[in-house]
Specification:
The chain has helices spanning about 20-45, 110-125, 130-145; strands at about 50-55, 65-70, 75-80, 85, 90, 95, 105. With about 150 residues, the chain is of the alpha+beta class. It has one domain (about 20-145). The strands form three sheets. The chain has a three-stranded antiparallel β-sheet, with no helix packed on it. Strands 1-2 form a two-stranded antiparallel ribbon. A hairpin with a 2-residue loop joins strand 5 and strand 6. Helix 1 (about 20-45) runs antiparallel to helix 2. The longest helix is centred in the N-terminal third of the chain and has 24 residues, at about 20-45. The model has no long low-confidence stretch (mean pLDDT about 90).
Amino acid sequence: MPILSNLTLVNAKRVITQTPQEQRRAKLLAAVAEQQNMARALLADETYTATREVWRKDEQGARVRVTRAKRLRPWFWLNTDGKWLLEVRYGARPLELGKGKRAVEVGVRAELPKVLGMIEDAVRAGELDAQIDTAVGARKLKLGKS
């Protein structure tokens, strides 16, 4: 134990500083950032692939960490009248941005990053907190959680 005697030991407990609302905002901000990357890749005629790390078993049966592509669905699409639309999602649920309105009309494809930036600013300002809470509440009801 001579090594530990060289360290300064304290009695401390880690405190979680984020509220559930801040955690939900962070989750939505991460999703908006991925959508921005997808939109930039679309404008540059490139393919965007997000990755994540997962645990798999190798041939010997040992668990190893590997990187694999994430399955992403774009929130934006080209409408039949030639205008681009954007839908903000929390998980698999589209958020209702206005009464009965779930999509934003972007117009031209080049405006996608700008509109996603505005959505990001709205999330940071807390303007979508009520819609996020509604989506979380609907999921809890579906799963039977209280």
